[in-house]
Design a protein that fits this description.
Strand content: 15-25%
Shape: globular
Distance between the termini: 43 Å
Helix content: 25-40%
Oligomer: single chain
Radius of gyration: 17 Å
Strand order of the largest sheet: 1-4-3-2-5-6-8-7
Largest sheet: 8 strands, mixed
Number of helices: 10
Mean pLDDT: 97
Bound molecules: S-adenosylmethionine
Number of strands: 8
Amino acid sequence: MGSKNKLKRFRENDSFENVIQPTRQEVQEGFPLKGKWHTHFNNNNPIILELGCGKGEYTLALAQRNPTINYIGVDIKGARFWLGAKIATEEKIPNVAFLRTQIELVDLCFAMNEVSEIWITFPDPQIKYKRTKHRMTNPDFFTKYQNILVKNGLMHLKTDSEFMHGYTLGLLQGQGHKIIYANHDVYKNEGAPSIVTEVQTFYEQMYLEERKPITYIQFQFADTI
Ligand SMILES: C[S@@+](CC[C@H](N)C(=O)[O-])C[C@H]1O[C@@H](n2cnc3c(N)ncnc32)[C@H](O)[C@@H]1O
């Protein structure tokens, strides 16, 4: 995407009421919406996050299906979620927001028990050992997610990466968390929840064209059960 196009999207993002773009400093010094997201949505409905949302396919699709739940797509790249924010604005979907921030800061953006579920959709698997700290299902990220999830909060991981699927399953078992459902090829093996095969993200569509299997894990952290 050209830089002119990106600038246009950044400007439009600034004008969308459903886009929140705090600076790193604002988040670190006390993010005003932390623990108060209900004031943004004007209701006390549950909140579900999509981390690394890209264009926000799950955020939008879930929001349209469940109007009494609020959905927030989180990504550092505003030019990507611009599309989701624009569709939600034009189609007047009130239960959608996009937060431009680093996922590393997620527990500074949401309070304890503020989030009901988290979707992680096609994260970069960060295969190299030295990149482990950036892998979105590593133990440090798990702690951050546990810090903001409600009791019985659900986690969803959808990925084309067999490495990430296996790594996450191993970690979940090793740490004694509850694996509710796991499928290493959701379009081939029956039984995946319908939402998993009904909604395809931008990256997922590319991987499907390459005939890669798509995997899914639904789980709960031991501390939140
Ligand atoms: C491979 S893309 C997947 C996007 C989308 N979920 C999909 O399936 O089409 C990964 C996304 O995660 C975002 N991302 C990666 N690391 C991040 C981080 N540490 N904080 C925030 N966003 C991050 C990237 O900007 C990118 O949009």
